[in-house]
Specification:
The protein is of the alpha+beta class. The chain has a domain of about 55 residues. It contains three helices and three strands. A three-stranded antiparallel β-sheet has the order 1-2-3, with no helix packed on it. Strand 1 and strand 2 form a beta hairpin. The two termini are about 25 Å apart. About 0% of the residues are buried.
Length: about 80
Amino acid sequence: MGRALWSKEDLLFELNGVLQKAGVSIDDGHKVTAIDGDDGAFVVGTERGLKVRARAVVLARGCAAARASSGCPARTRARSCTG
């Protein structure tokens, strides 16, 4: 990795390779309804009734979700998300 600038596509490709080598799984498309537990021992519940055990949890709302819930006019939201 050592490059100063990455395209979005190149960065995602490299990160995907790192995650695969580390055995990390990413399950998207699930609405999380609960996170219980302590540091290193979590149980994540989904709206489908799935319970997943995890050592770590990353919540990523994404830019579109942040803009939609910010209450800012669209023009202001776009600038605040990107810069």
